[in-house]
Amino acid sequence: MFIVMASPECAPIAKAGGLGDFVHGLCRELSSRGHAVELVLPKYDSLRFDRIQGLHKVYGDLWVPFYDKAIRCDVEYGEVDGIACFFIDAHGEHRFFHRGKIYGDADDPERFAFFSRAVMEFLYKSGRHPDIIHCNDWHTGLMPVLLYEIYAGLGMDRSRVCYSLHNVGHQGWTGPQVLQMNRLDAARLMVPERLRDPGNPGAVNLMKGGIVFSNFVTTVSPRYAWEIQHTEQGMGLQAVLQTHDHKFGGVLNGIDYDTWNPEVDGHLPVHFGPQTLPEKAKCTAALRARTGLADAFKPIVAVVSRLDKQKGVALIRHGIDYALAQGCQCVLLGSASSPEVDAEFSRLKHETDASPDCHLALGYDEDLAHLIYAGADMILIPSVYEPCGLTQMIAMKYGCVPIARRVGGLADTVFDANYSDRPFEERNGYVFDDYTYAGLESALGRAIGLWQRYPEYFRQLRLNGMRQDHSWNVPGQHYLDIYNHIRV
To answer: Do 359 and 330 touch, CB atoms closer than 8 A?
Structure first.
């Protein structure tokens, strides 16, 4: 099967969140099964060029329609961890991908609408007719619209589109100009059945366009698929998703065990696995040495997270206080998305810098992240909403027990030690429902109590999580089943 993946991100060269990990992991899995997979990305000036092998120009003078003119692009090719990657390099005064970053500008909808048109123009002009075009999030939501409104009539009528929603909190709201710049019929498309935003009749919703015009829509966990159809987590798209329920489903993400695996992890001082769990203690000692924590017989409660509203910053802050009061040590690694949150955690860092039991690292440090997973006993994930979440799956692989709120992908992967209806060998953490201090304390308190009073049971929880398979093997097959379902 010939599969083209279009995305604004791919780890490790252009990563802002879990989307980058998804694209990297799924492309590698599909390629390993013998399918021809090509990934198309913008050529940002902020790419990790040191991780791209053999980068060179393969297509010049790609003139991409833009209003009544055209913008010249080059297309370059290179490989990233064995993934065949094409990079759209847009020239001209707009400097669409020369901003020193991936996202964050007022014209982001125009930037990625242009990228969508450039990808389709490249596929058409280079004679590529993939069986499947796999688009991701609002940034490529215009691609299925362009395929069926323009390019199918030019001979690309056999390509089918799978469209993945990674976070419906960001839908690509914009004005009709994105349709006009792509020479689409704005009057015909700005109707409730197509791209008109459900909450703002004057706005185009790019994510909605992807949902309506694609052949199949996925999101990144079964629970999140239900939530965005039936709760406020749908952010206004509930009715649209219900209308298209016949072509919608949730597929849980995987994680890359070449990167996240304590048995081979090059970031760790020693390796360990289910058969060598006592070696984890050496990683715990290394974590204490690295962060200045006292060498004490106490559980380490960790946080590795963006510090923003979605991730539950209020409960993260309370959880640290509560864990310290219960005789634990705490390590946090995270960066804030707003000045207010950054100021709050900077104050907390100042207050705890002298503590032998608490260390806050505000920023991101890849080496430290790996060491925290390997050395900590528990990890706190109190998300307001969580489409999938990789943190809990990574933590479990490293024998670090998750304490998580039962939402989205967390509900699909973390099963309560006391109250789950699953067999004991499948229970792997502690969960709570209510987004309250009391809800958090109910789960975290039970986890701390087990560590302190019943160490053998806590050890078994670690092993239960370590033995679960969260690789890309199963989700990779799910996506192949979807592709085959929609193929001509």
So the answer is: yes
488, pLDDT greater than 90: no
The arithmetic mean of pLDDT across residues 391-417, rounded, is 98
**Three-state DSSP string of the chain:** CEEEEECCCECCCECCCHHHHHHHHHHHHHHHCCCEEEEEEECCCCCCHHHCEEEEEEEEEEEEEECCEEEEEEEEEEEECCEEEEEEEECCCCCCCCCCCCCCCCCHHHHHHHHHHHHHHHHHHCCCCCCEEEEECHHHCHHHHHHHHCHHHHCCCCCEEEEEECCCCCCCEECCHHHHHCCCCHHHHCCCCCCECCCCCCCEEHHHHHHHHCCEEEECCHHHHHHHHHCHHHCCCHHHHHHCHHHEEECCCCCCCCCCCCCCCCCCCCCCCHHHHHHHHHHHHHHHHHHCCCCCCCCEEEEECCECHHHCHHHHHHHHHHHHHCCCEEEEEECECCHHHHHHHHHHHHHHCCCCCEEEEECCCHHHHHHHHHHCCEEEECCCCCCCCCHHHHHHHCCCEEEEECCHHHHHHCCECCCCCCCHHHCCEEEECCCCHHHHHHHHHHHHHHHHHCHHHHHHHHHHHHCCCCCCHHHHHHHHHHHHHHCC
Q: What is the pLDDT of residues 84-97, one digit of tens each?
A: 999 999 998 999 99
Residue 340 CB: number of other CB atoms within 10 A?
9
Give the CA distances from residue 230 to residues 163, 273, 311, in Å, rounded to whole numbers and listed in that order: 20, 40, 21
Domains present along the chain, CATH in parentheses: 2-254+473-486 (3.40.50.2000), 274-466 (3.40.50.2000)
Which amino acid does the sequence have at 208?
K
Residues 6+ apart with CB under 8 A from 77: 54, 55, 56, 57, 58, 84, 85, 86, 87
- Condensed to tens digits (0 to 9), the pLDDT of residues 152-184 reads 999 999 999 999 999 999 999 999 999 999 999
Residue 352 CB neighbours (<10 A): 18
Query: For 420-440, what is the mean pLDDT?
Result: 97
Is 319:444 a contact under the CB 8 Å cutoff? yes
pLDDT tens digits, 262-276: 999 999 999 999 999
* Cα gap 22→338, rounded to integer Å: 25
Q: What is the pLDDT of residues 371-401, one digit of tens each?
A: 999 999 999 999 999 999 999 999 999 999 9
pLDDT in tens, 2-41: 999 999 999 999 998 899 999 999 999 999 999 999 999 9
Mean pLDDT value of segment 177-195: 96
Q: What's phi and psi for 58, nearest 5 deg?
A: -120, -15
